UniProtKB/TrEMBL annotation:
Signal peptide segment: 1-19
PROSITE patterns reported for this sequence: THAUMATIN_1, THAUMATIN_2
Disulfide bridge map: C28-C235, C76-C86, C91-C97, C143-C225, C148-C208, C156-C171, C175-C184, C185-C195
Protein name: Thaumatin-like protein
Keywords, ordered alphabetically: Disulfide bond, Secreted, Signal
Superkingdom of origin organism: Eukaryota
Localization of this protein: Secreted
Lineage: Eukaryota, Viridiplantae, Streptophyta, Embryophyta, Tracheophyta
Cellular compartments per GO CC: extracellular region
SUPFAM superfamilies: Osmotin, thaumatin-like protein (SSF49870)
GO biological process: one example: defense response
Family affiliation: Belongs to the thaumatin family.
Length: 235
């Protein structure tokens, strides 16, 4: 079977001058439900969420100055009204997240466009549920991929594991698991000088060196590009 017979491309346009086109691709073996949360005052894309079957891709256009995040929800079940529940990444029990963020743990992709260049990263600060990568296209030789392609669920310490029917479906951050300032970079640990990598964040960093492992993990985890489109691949 030719690739175009099972790769379904949907083009969704947003009014106004486009800053970038995001192509979200599901390379997983099962269906996912991507979620999108726009930054404050920024237009919502795709009503915040949709269904994406294995092998499918969806193109989403973002306007100038857009910022926000993408993540994948897993194990979802929704009724005809779009209400239901997801095992990971749930956004309040609705298909169209429409301004609601994903429940951690979830792997995040974060963007700030045209400031005056694009900033982007893969973040595990809220934990991990699926491998994800960001590959820029058309932005020049200096534009690099951000990624976490390791299946961290298989390496997740027991105290961080989120299980469903006996299977590890996500890996919590130290902050989510223990709610202590030294893991959350809060209180007395709310600066780069006082909040340092922990044994738990180091597990994430070893597995995914190009992704944020804790709040102040900027040096090796923030990427920049200009004038590019971006391919966001799950799994």
């Amino acid at each position: 079977m030719a690739p175009w017979n099972f790769l379904i491309l949907l083009l969704i346009s947003v009014s106004g001058s486009d800053a970038a086109v995001f192509t979200l691709s599901n390379r997983c073996r099962s269906t996912i439900w991507p979620g999108i949360l726009s930054g404050a005052g920024k237009p919502q894309l795709m009503e915040g969420g949709f269904k994406l079957k294995p092998g499918q891709s969806v193109k989403v256009s973002a306007p100038q100055g857009w910022s926000g995040r993408f993540w994948a929800r897993t194990g979802c079940s929704f009724d005809s009204s779009g209400r239901g529940k997801c095992i990971t990444g749930d956004c309040g029990g609705i298909l169209r997240c429409a301004g609601a963020g994903g429940e951690p743990p979830a792997s995040l992709v974060e963007f700030t466009l045209n400031s005056p260049i694009d900033y982007y990263d893969v973040s595990l600060v809220d934990g991990f549920n699926l491998p994800v990568s960001v590959v820029p296209s058309g932005g020049g030789a200096g534009c690099k991929a951000a990624e976490c392609v390791s299946v961290l669920n298989k390496k997740c310490p027991g105290s961080l594991q989120l299980k469903w029917n006996g299977q590890v479906v996500a890996c919590k951050s130290g902050c989510l698991a223990f709610e202590k300032p030294e893991y959350c970079c809060t209180g007395a640990y709310s600066s780069p000088q006082t909040c340092k990598p922990t044994n738990y964040s180091k597990v994430f960093k070893t597995a995914c060196p190009k992704a944020y492992s804790y709040a102040y993990d900027d040096a090796s985890s923030t990427f920049t590009c200009k004038g590019a489109n971006y391919w966001i691949r799950f799994c």
